[in-house]
# Entry
Amino acid sequence: MALLIAELCQNHNGDEKIVEEMVQAAAESGADYAKIQSIDSSELTFRDRFENGLIEGGKIKVIKRPYQKEYDRLKNLDLTEEFQLNFHKLCKKYQIKPMTTLFTRSKIKLVKKMNIDCLKISSFDCASHKLIDELKELNIEKFIISTGATYDREIFETVKIMKKNNLDFSLLHCISIYPTTPDVANLNRIKFLSKLSKSVGISDHSNPEIYRYKIIAASILLGASIVEKHFTILDKDKTKDGVVSADPIQLKEISDLCKMDLEDLGSYVSENVKEFEIMKGFETRELTETELLNRDYYQGRFASKKGKETIFNWEDRKV
# Structure
């Protein structure tokens, strides 16, 4: 049986009433956790090279994502600190566990007050070793760390820090391509990560309208005990993450897969996942051009503010 996390991300469009409806729907669909993101638009960082991007030889070298346009978009999606602090009460009302993703070191103070037992670290902060070390300040039972667009040497260091600090953690295999297609799934990475952590999962970014739950089913069969899936109750063209998100009916079907015994799941994969062998890929691999572009943009996208000083999630590293 695999644990199911409904990633609400910003599919709520900044509307707290929609968040409540999402929590209720996630619980009714069988999710174990409803997860928000502790993002603050004021912590978005201005980085000149993303204002115009860079194309050389017909290839994108730097993503074009101007600061002001992104700030204006994110500002409408902010959840108030008060709402985040009371998120656990909302989840208790609908009998589902609360979770959040930590994006900046300054939000550690907020997370301390959120009354959650599990915290997510996103793929783009798996290599933020200063942030990873500061997790020891939190009274959290379990940490889940995604590993998309992260080099193996960075994962090794993160694991070393977590073990040094005696923190209970799981690693999630993730492909930081939105949406992910089966040919780049590389699900054998689950075997690789299982050598580093006692529990491993999958953060799936595939389009459920096209690929259903093939990556999720195959991942569980290969040993994933945690499944994270973006979730929406709105029409999928109404949010930025809609294309990789499951609706309530789809989330219920994913929940049913998570509860299958391995024999039944094996039959499901045999009948429905013809790409299974292709999806396995390799335990170790090179990051794709798309992942490297996303890594370049998203690492350092947010940073804590301390007066006029900008505090990134790492030490001695330039953006």
Summary: DSSP finds 15 helices and twelve strands in the chain. The domain at 3-311 is CATH 3.20.20.70 (TIM Barrel).
